[in-house]
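Example record

The entry below shows one chain as it appears in the dataset: sequence first, then structure tokens.
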Amino acid sequence: MHDTISDTVIVGVDTHKDLHVAVAITGLGTPLGTFTVPVTAAGYRQLLQWAEAFGPVQAFGIEGTGSYGAGLSRALRSKGYRVIEVDRPNRRLRRQRGKSDAIDAEAAARAVLSGEARTCAKSGDGAVEMIRHLKIVRDTAMKSRTQAMITLKTLIVNAPQDLREQFITITGRIALVRALAALRPGLINSTTASAKTALRMLARRWLSLNAEIRELDDALEVLVRQKAPSLMSSPGIATGTIAEMLIVLGDNPERIRSDAALAKLCGVCPIPASSGKTTRHRLNRGGNRKANAALHRVAVVRMRCHPATKAYIERRTGEGKSLRDIRRCLKRYIAREIFNSLCRPNLGNGQASNAA
């Protein structure tokens, strides 16, 4: 009788822009082979046929499921295979083992086999993926709009005196930008004309980006309300925060098995830093920093405006906690509230909301 563990196949994949390198191992860790395929639908089918020739595939461990490996991950998930997201090996291990595509692919397979990698990859085929696309564009538009305004104000300060005096006293961004967008520099034959041209172009760029951001905000509002309607009424939680958390969870939030796992994913769980007779925890500087920043903003808003949170702060302050420690506790409570709403919608989020 065959050993079922040894007959099981685990495939690790090192992903790149044009080629993927795969290594198959048995359930006992014995290497079976290496295979390279192009990053195409036909290449994905070849990889699957090659892996299935060794026996039943238990799982695929893929590096970069959110970038170069996104297409392969979606193709394998659509066929019903278990896809595990594998982090890149740390530099110390890489220095010890060497570096090649086959070595990295085998390391990915062994990470799945050992249980070091066990997080299911995001599906990337639903409403959350749509939110992610729009959020990326909005974030870049926000940065460009901010940079345009900073450059515009700098040019006004350095502009010829008559031009500077004309616009330096205008208050309000919209009024200033519209006045600058209406400039008519004419032929560029003086520093005043060139300054007018630059200011008009920057103002029109700002207005265009502003209209683009409004359009994206409207689209995100619709998608987020459809995906997480209950969170929209939670104090301090706005569309941007929910969108950021949905992106962290993905279209298959069931892959996050507990609120503690979500807290760790967002970097809001304390890290043990005890030694000898000293027992303490330190701030977690890992996790998704955008999600961490979103939780921080919610905590700050609630600390200022939310009556239940103010009562909580008063109670914890009486226990000797500092405001910084209280804010960290609040971020952990908010992560639990979001988990209960998005990953366990049937439980509701009343308990976490009341606690925070």
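Notes for this example: The CA atoms of residues 132 and 167 lie 39 Å apart. The longest helix spans residues 191-227.
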